């Protein structure tokens, strides 16, 4: 992990140092402004990396130390879905739907033992990951909560391009990024999905990815992430 961190920090630092060294030599205002944009971009990239690295490194200790409580996944996911739909102008506008398969839950509900802030972080990460891949117009994310006798299952579907088959497991590796061409470099640290899987596994669950199959052979209609958690008995 330390080797990976060193590698990831070195790239923006190298770019930042080059821009800072070149700035005094800039011959006109346009060149200076372009170099200042590079510097600001690299500083934001470093800040994002350091925040996410700190989050990942202290996660295990936090989950062990904190006392787990009953979390109502229906309430938690509903609130996050509503906030995500009302995201400000700095987010790509996307229709976020929340569906509940109430029939399979019966009177058992959707309670799990865990940490609501961390489980909320997983849901937010999955929504924002999907948001970056759906089309600018007509983007759609659907969250579906269902229940089996012993598990609470949350699926997050999007209408983006799907996941390349060879990357379905790689996307959960630390610092791995395969971002859409429209997204500016440095917007993603490559830790969101890794942290999300770490949180889910710490709760005794699993986080997997797959593609949503279309009606035609080999057709992909988007990506699907599945959070599977032990239900409160």
Amount of beta strand: 15-25%
Would you tell me the overall average pLDDT? 83
Low-confidence parts, pLDDT < 50 over ≥5 residues?
Answer: 182-187
Class from helix and strand fractions: alpha+beta
List keywords for this structure.
single chain; 233 residues; alpha+beta; 5-stranded mixed β-sheet; two-stranded antiparallel ribbon; 7 strands
Structure description:
45% of the residues lie in helices and 21% in strands. The chain has helices at 2-22, 29-65, 73-85, 102-105, 116-133, 192-202; strands at 69-72, 95-100, 111-114, 140-147, 151-158, 206-213, 220-230. Strands 2-4-5-7-6 form a 5-stranded mixed sheet. Strand 4 (140-147) and strand 5 (151-158) form a beta hairpin. The longest helix is centred in the N-terminal third of the chain and has 37 residues, at 29-65. The chain starts with a helix and ends with a strand.
Short description:
By secondary structure, the protein is an alpha+beta fold.
């Amino acid at each position: 992990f330390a080797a990976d961190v060193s590698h990831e920090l070195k790239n923006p630092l190298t770019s930042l140092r080059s821009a800072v060294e070149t700035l005094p030599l800039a011959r006109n205002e346009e060149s200076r402004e372009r170099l200042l944009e590079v510097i600001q971009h690299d500083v934001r990239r470093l800040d994002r990396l350091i925040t996410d690295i700190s989050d990942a490194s202290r996660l295990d200790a936090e989950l062990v130390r904190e006392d787990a409580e009953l979390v109502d996944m229906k309430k938690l996911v509903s609130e996050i879905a509503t906030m995500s739909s009302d995201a400000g102008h700095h987010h790509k506008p996307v229709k976020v739907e929340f569906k509940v398969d109430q029939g399979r839950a019966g009177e058992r509900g959707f309670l799990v033992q865990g940490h609501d802030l961390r489980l909320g972080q997983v849901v937010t990460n999955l929504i924002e990951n999907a948001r970056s891949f759906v089309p600018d117009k007509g983007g759609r994310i659907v969250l579906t909560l269902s229940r089996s006798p012993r598990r609470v299952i949350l699926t997050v579907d999007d209408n983006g391009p799907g996941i390349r088959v060879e990357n379905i497991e790689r996307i959960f590796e630390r610092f791995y990024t395969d971002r859409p061409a429209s997204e500016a470099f440095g917007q993603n640290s490559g830790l969101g999905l890794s942290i999300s899987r770490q949180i889910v596994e710490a709760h005794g669950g699993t986080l997997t990815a797959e593609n949503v199959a279309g009606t035609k052979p080999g057709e992909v209609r988007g990506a699907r992430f599945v959070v599977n958690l032990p239900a409160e008995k």
